[in-house]
Amino acid sequence: MKSQLASDIIKREQTLRSNRAPWEAAWQAVADVTLPVSVDFRQLSLERGPGAAGGPRSAARMPDIYDQTAMMAVQRWGAALESMITPRAAKWHNLSLQGSGQGGAVADAERKWLERLRDLMFAQRYAAGTGFAGSVQSVYRSLGSFGTGFIYVEDGYLLGSNKPLLYRPVHLSEMVIDQNAYGQMDTAMRRFSLSARQAANLFKDSCPAKVRQAAADSAEQDRRFCFIQAVFPRDDKWQGKARTVQTTAYQSAVVFVDDAEVIHSRGYHEMPFIDFRLDRQPGEIYSESPALIALPEVRGINAMARDTLRAVQQISSPAYAAAEVKSKGGRVNLNANKINRGLIDPATGRLLIQPIQSGGRPDIAMGLIQDKREMIREAFYVNLFQVLADAPEMTATQSLIRDREKGELLGPIGAQVQTALDRLVEREGGILERAGVYDPAGPYAPPPSLQGRSWTVEFTSPLDRLRRAEEGVGTMRTFETMMAVAQYDPGVMDLLETDEAVRGLAEINGMPSKFLRSVDAVEELRGERDDAAAKQSALTEATQAAGIANALGISPPSPEEGGVDAVLE
Length: 569
Fold this sequence. Notes:
Elements: H1 4-19, H2 21-34, H3 57-61, H4 69-85, E1 93-97, H5 108-125, H6 132-146, E2 148-155, E3 165-170, E4 175-179, E5 185-195, H7 196-203, H8 209-216, E6 224-233, E7 250-256, E8 261-268, E9 273-277, H9 290-293, H10 295-316, E10 320-322, E11 353-355, H11 362-379, H12 382-389, H13 396-434, E12 455-459, H14 462-467, H15 469-486, H16 498-508, H17 519-552, H18 564-568
Antiparallel strand pairs: 1-12, 2-3, 2-9, 4-5, 5-6, 6-7, 7-8, 10-11
Helix pairs in contact: 4-6, 7-8, 10-11, 13-15, 15-16
């Protein structure tokens, strides 16, 4: 049965898709030369399933690619972003209390709880079968090619999984979005297709009758049907109410396009589609990308590589001009060690067949091609990533200065990616909270001091350490200056909070905080050291006093009078 909501969703999805049509032509041009395995943007109905085109997409597109520089640059771009922003072997973010600021004062019990919660997030995020690692790599490649990418984050428990967090990359061809007045995505619509068998298995009792009938027919079970999942903000009526499925911030509806029927509805506390967008111009919804910017160079280098290949072929296997051929069969055999009779003029001794030299200079073309390759690599920051990978020997201060320079160049990209990652972590935190992680009787119950307080994300990736290298450089230079001044005025060292300075340097350098003693542990250790020093001083004084007394013939004091034995006790 048709519904007004379904009709409105279909109409709005068509409008949003029509508005983005100019982008699709550019995306398709980029996909053809940088991501030949990408879904075809021209296939908007999406009614043909994976592999329906008759083989791998790369096999159909690769014959038109004569230079793979852009393809390799996209792959390296994705790998470099992952290593710099979300490295799998490192904790690329911490959790801090809102209002505490970067490195702000947090009690040891609160800090330890935040670290335990962070470790739980990483354990669940990178657990086998969640799909996070593949999803984030896919979205990074999408950013390099198209400037926009999406990850869908779902509550695994609601889907019957034994994992609370599940991730799935969503191809840009399936998504249309809209944003609020502040440029933040608040509406996401995904058009996708399923076979009848897949739809019946996914939607179960809510599956449309037409689809169920096709699924029950062995001849029709692979027939594909089109659906739209729309996630959009509820009106203001939900505000101020207890958060339930009916009063969540976002409403979701799955529409069966053929019948304009809503077959599934639910609510989301957070937007489940996480949008990654790079360089957006004012008023634009979709983003520019390195590949879009470098597209003229990519097209040019492909044309030049094609022509150069032809020129090389003409030199290595040239065409021939010949007089009347008198060899056997009237054909010339150009294979090695073969004899062709009748191709020499008896009167002059000249060959009756000569290669046609085009005069082409592929060596000149190769120089131009190399220049274009460098420009493409620069568009994808490949050269900069390579510099970061190289590790020449240098002092700590020189290394910090080098890191600061690279951090300034990569900072804008990292900030745009981390804006999306912040929303992703917020979505993960909401799912874990509703799964009962904060249960007062559970192992992750927060300290009483955190009641009513919220945590926020504090990124600690290699790129963030590069950004903070300026602080490290300043700290190291200040240390060096103060040590020089202290030779003349030792009191200058009293200006320095050495504990905080060392903790800050450890954080900038990526040292885990658990490797540092807590403030209480340091105070206790220093107290014990002071007590031991006081006892040693008293023992030394008592020993000296006993020596003087013996020299003067005076009996040393007894333990009751505070002698050496009393000190030792």
